[in-house]
Structure formats: C-alpha cells, structure tokens
Amino acid sequence: MNIRPTCLLLLLALTACAGQRDTQPIAPSQPASVPPLRAQDDADFAAALAAAENGQWQSDYAAAFARHPAYGWLEYAHLRRSLDTLDSRRAEDFLARQGQTAVGVRFRNEWLAALGKRADWAAVGRAWQTGIERPALRCIWLEARRQQGQADSAWMQEARALWLSDKPLPATCQSPIAYWQQQGGLDEALRWQRIDLAIAANQPDILNEVAAGLPPAAATLARSYASALTSGKLDDAARWPQDARSAQVITAALVALAKKSPDAAEAALPGYLARLNTAERGRVLYEIALQTAASYLPESARRLTAVPAASRDERLHQLMLREALARRAWAEALQIVESFPAALRDKPQNLYFRARLLEMTGQNGAQALYRQAARHPEFHGFLAADRLQAPYPLCPWTANAQPALEKSVAENPGLQSAFALYRMGRREWASAEWNHTLKSLNDAERRIAVAQAQQHGWFDRAVFSLARENRDELRLYSLRFPLHYLDTIKREAEKHALDPSWIAAEIRAESLFDAAARSPANAIGLMQVLPSTGEAVAKRLGIPWQGTQTLYQPESNIAIGSAYLAEMKNRWNSLPAAIAAYNAGPGPTGRWQTQRPDFAADFWIETISYRETREYVPRVLSFSVIYDWRMHGDALRISERIAGNNSGQRVGFRCPE
To answer: What is 39-239's CATH number?
Structure first.
C-alpha cells in the first residue's frame, strides 16, 4: 500500500498460451505426497535453534535432533557463534559432513572469512573450494597462497583480474594487491584501466583511491574527474585532455545534472557538443527527455523528439507514446506507435493502443489488431477481447501425475530442510536451502517441489521458481494464483460490498500470500498495510490494535486492507483510481484525476506518471480476472469490472487457435 522500488513481487506477465483448446477451468492441483508437518518437532527444534544462537547449546541436541531435516542449521547456529576461536578440526568435520549442502556453503564462506582474520593460512587452504566468487574470499585465498610461497604466475594473473573491477575492493584485498604491486604487477596503465571501469560504472570513490598511486599531474586529473562525477559540475573540464576518457566523464556529469535539473543540463550541453560523439550526445539528450517527460512537463514533446533514433530504447519509445496520449494528440500518438520497431510495435499493449488510436482517428484496421492482441492473456489482451466480444485466451495446463517422482521429491533432504525452516519462520535460511536444492532438480522435479511448497503454505515459490520462459509452466494457474484465506476474503468482501476476486488479486500483487511479508517502506502482511494506515482503519472498524503485530495476523490484515480498499473505491468512484490510490496514495492519484479527468480508463491508466503504479493497476485488474475464474469458472469482463458493473457480462475462456 505504498510506492516501492520495482521488485520481484510486481510481476507483469500473466502467462503464455499454447497447447490445449477449449479447455475448462481446472480445479486446484491435488496435494503432493509430502511428509507430515511434525509441528511438535518443529517447535522443539525452533526452541533449540534460539538457544544455540544465544550460546545455550545443550549436549543432548545432537542425539535429540540428528534426524531433523534441518539439523545442519542447528549445528551451524552453534558453531558460528565462536568462529574467531573455533577449533579447526570441529569446523572441518562440519564441512566434511555438510560441505555440499546449503548450510555447508554458507558456513564455508563465514569460516574462510574468520580464518582470514586469524591469519590461519594453512586452514584457509584446507577449507578453500573451487568456484567461490566473492572478491573478499578470493583475496583471502590469494593471501593464503602468498603466505605459503605460492605467488606464482597464475597468482599474479588472479590478482590482476581482481584489480580490474568497477566496484570497490574489500579490505581483504589490500595485502595481496600491495604485494602484486611490489612485484611489478600494477603499473600506471592498469590504474587507468580501472579508472575507466569506474567512470563507466559512476564510481568516483574508486577514482580517488586509484589516483593515490598515480604521478602528481595524473592524480590531479583523476581527482578532477571524480569531483565532476560526484557533483555533476564541469568547472575544470576546459583543462581536461581532449580525449575519449574526458568525453565519457563529461557525458556522465551531464547525465547526473539532467537527473537533478533537465533545464540546466539542456542549457549546458551546447558548450560540450564538440567534445562528444553521437552516442554520448544521445545519452545526455535521452536523460534530459526522460526526466522532463516522466511528469509530462511542457517541454516534453520537443525534448523527446530531439533524442536521436539510435539512442531510443523501449522505455523512451513508450514514454513518447504516453506523452502524446497525455496531450490528447491522438494522430501523433498513432504515428509514434506505428513507428516503433516491429518487435515493440507488436507487443499486446501496443497492438491494443494502435487499434484504439485507429478507431479514434476514424481509420480502418482496428479489428485485425484487436484480434492479434486478444491472443494474449494479459491486461491489454483482455481489453482487446472485450472489444471483439471474444472469449479470454486462458489456457490452463496440468502436468501429468508422477507418484513415484512426487515421493522422491518429498523425500529430498534439501527440500525437507527448506520446508521445515520455512514453517519455523526462518525465511532467509529456507530460501537459501530452496535455491541450493533447486539447482539439482530437473524441470519435472522442480514443478513438483513448487506444488509441495504450496502445501506448506509457501506460495511465492511458484512465482520465483517456475520458469517464466517456459510456456507450459506459466499456465500452472493453480500454483501461480493460490486460493488461500478464501473464507476471510469472501467475508470481508461481503461486508464492504467488494468483489472478492479484487481482494485476492491485491493480496497476490502485494505479498504473494505471505502473511509475514514486510517491505522496505514497512508495509506489513498480506495486503501490505502501513502501520499508520492500519491503526487508523482498525480504530474505525473497532478491531483491537496491538501494534504492528496486528498486521501480521491474516484475518486482521485482510479486514483492515479490505476496509481501506472500500474507502478508496468510495472516495474515487473508480476502480482503477482506487487501485492506484492503494499503491501510490491519495495525493498522486488526486493529481492524476485532476490532470486527466475525462480520460477513458485505458488511457488514464496508461498515462499514470509513476511507473510502479502504471504497471500495478493493470496487474491487479488482470489478477482479478484470474481469481474470478478460479472462484467461479468464468469471469466478469475486465471492461465491465473497470466500469464498476459487477453484474455485467461474464466471459468464458478458450485457448487461442
């Protein structure tokens, strides 16, 4: 219920269709064969974990919990408390037993870091494993080899590879890099190579660090570059060499300036045009246009047009279309979308708007474009199907049952550990165990693992672990769109005169049905309610408020979130605006309503200036269609839903031909 950086919780693509024809909606998949939850064992194990983390390891834990699937994590919790003093034999015994598991990988990394601090170079050699990529650990490995007289030519090459990084080097690299330099490995040319990498990555601190080893004049130049990258000011640029490196810094500084003030960047650019190549000029003009048009400022159209065609990407093309739509320049918008590269022009969203704009400008050809768009089961495909009065192209797929394989997956030690950790609220450890285990599974096993995760209430695995490029897996709707807390959802929907499929869609979009979800902005629970909003709504509803803990309770969270949805719907009298307000807040939504009060809903959604909200509103509306279908076997047409006509025409589903 707040603006957040785009992340994996906000997934755009709903599915891709292929295969079956005239398929009826499927029932939720049958539970896979999974071990019992062992609730009491989990409670005892969780208590032992907490005790181990607090230094209260009991001698009988090994005997009591050795058969628990997550036992390795209990031992890890105990051992990691004393890494600085831990006997190497105990650590190496643990690695001998657990080294190839998720907990073993984690412990090895932490153990190597501790050994580096202890300068136990022989133990580093025993613990090292090929394939470790972390620079901090690779530098410990380099130092261990150096200390043992193994700084050969291969060692020198590895040190060089670590040096040539566009990221700051960790402290563990200081000693091996210093030795590499002493042995003649680091010359001025390599320093400038790293500076070039840092300029491209906009890492001015690296420039200042590397400058310390350059001759005085070169060091002054490098520090001047760093200052320009930091401040966006080009006061010293006239004294810089007339070369490609200086041009790159000028470009980066102007781009940084454009992000703060596109007007200032546009005014400054002419003074440097002679020093920039076509691509560099395009990069600056791109950023000026982007920062201007994102809010549809008056100079938007001119600045967008000024960006060279070679510098335009999908983001800028779509922004050009939205800016023209925001000005109601229908003919211009049509010309823009028709000029898109073919792959972009034929995306469902742009097929739909090409058709709409053809109709609005009195031209022919809209129906054919609607038919193309309507083959895609996503927001604009549903809208196109409504224009044609066609069925929706939803094409569910069910993998063939494989009882023997399901049993094998259920007995996988890594998955058993992951599920146990998840049940105990150890989400980060559970995810580490899950990700490690999935590397060893084939596609069929992975799909079964996702189904079993759902039986444990771990719903987001379907989103993160089904291959989005796999057309069949995207059609596993019962996994990707779980029906959980359904009684509570229906009760709150009835109480507030809301469509239950909308509430379910909000939960899916906000938290992926994770009751323990918490965003960086402190939005909490299934419907990602901010504590300040939650407390105010709870008081209005008479729900006892026990601080943020109330929002972690599924029933309370759904009650509060649904009530807030109803408030937004009543306030705006528009479903798209209510969804936008739930995501961005009433302030921005009110501004968008004021700016474009008479826009059709599809154009209003497309011209929302916040990218997250512009993507969020179609997502929730599309998810509502999916959940409506999952609950009832058909769905209210999305255009009827947008219009607020909940008793309007319903539609069936059919695989596209």
So the answer is: 1.25.20.10
